[in-house]
Amino acid sequence: MSTHHDGPDRAHQRPPGVSDTTVEALGALSKALETTERARGHLYTFHQLTGGADFELDRAVSLLREAGHDAWADRVQREILGRNVIPGHWTFQIIEAYNATYYEPFKAVENQARGELADGRDHLYEAELKEQRRTAGHPDHTARPDD
């Protein structure tokens, strides 16, 4: 059972005058950014898997040569090893373009919206949802961690 706190800390309390719709809108904006974070993670997965495959080609080329298939080894080395994944781009360049063109501006807008509309407070929607769903007085449903 919580001995100190009943309800969210100040950082997770709705500032005066902030409407339900604003809290919901900021929650939706935050959720969209979280989805973008996941998409960005998949880009890094794509980057690492593609890089790993490219390095595995060294082994394939070596084994093709060892097996006496020099023409195939030459072809794999010439046509596939180190190849752009889209014209002019390796995967790191795709990530850099995504970050600069989409991710960083999105992150900045979400941060500015929270700053202007909710005094910079984060996860207000989730904090209020937690209050609605927790069982007051239950030791595993405390409002926040003990100090």
Name the beta content range.
under 5%
Q: How would you classify the helix and strand content by structural class?
A: mainly alpha
Query: How many strands, what sense, and barrel or not for the largest sheet?
Result: none
Count of separate DSSP helical elements: 4
Helix content: 55-70%
Roughly what is the average pLDDT, rounded to an integer? 93
Low-confidence region ranges: none
Overall, the morphology is elongated
The rounded Rg comes to: 25 Å
- Total E-strand runs: 0
- What is the N-to-C order of secondary-structure elements (H for helix, E for strand)? HHHH
Report how far the terminal alpha carbons are from each other. 14 Å
Structure description:
- The chain is an all-alpha fold.
- The chain has helices spanning 20-66, 70-79, 91-118, 124-133.
- It starts with 19 loop residues before the first helix and ends in a 14-residue tail after the last helix.
- The model has no long low-confidence stretch (mean pLDDT 93).
Task: Please outline the helices and strands.
Elements lengths: L19 H47 L3 H10 L11 H28 L5 H10 L14
Helix pairs in contact: 1-2, 1-3
Short description:
65% of the residues lie in helices and 0% in strands.
Q: Key terms for this structure?
A:
147 residues; mainly alpha; 4 helices
